[in-house]
Design goal:
By secondary structure, the chain is mainly beta. It is built from one helix and five strands. The longest helix is centred in the first third of the chain and has 9 residues. The chain starts with 7 loop residues before the first helix and ends in a 7-residue tail after the last strand. Bound molecules: zinc ion.
Length: 88
């Protein structure tokens, strides 16, 4: 078995896992909301990982929630910004 092998139960658990609740709009962010299974730990050189999830919810304008994830995909903190510009 490979060292970083993730079994079916672990994958299902991570998808359903409630990671955090947005402090601004109370949106619940689950593993599936951040495509958690696509995060390749081998490519991450620095923990905690900062994942930015932009959303609107409960009539709250678009905002960015930064989620700090440790290498067990546990949330170590979060931050919200209302100032966002995404350029391509
Ligand atoms: Zn929110």
């Amino acid at each position: 078995m490979k060292k970083n092998f993730m079994n079916t139960e672990t994958r299902a658990f991570l998808i359903r896992k409630l990671l955090t609740v947005c402090p601004v709009c109370q949106k619940r962010i689950y593993g599936k909301d951040i495509d958690i299974l696509k995060i390749d730990k081998k490519k991450i050189s620095h923990w905690p990982l900062r994942y930015i999830h932009c959303h609107t919810n409960n009539n709250v304008p678009f905002h960015a929630l930064t989620i700090y994830l440790d290498n067990n995909f546990a949330v170590r903190g979060n931050e919200v910004s209302n100032f966002i510009k995404i350029e391509n």
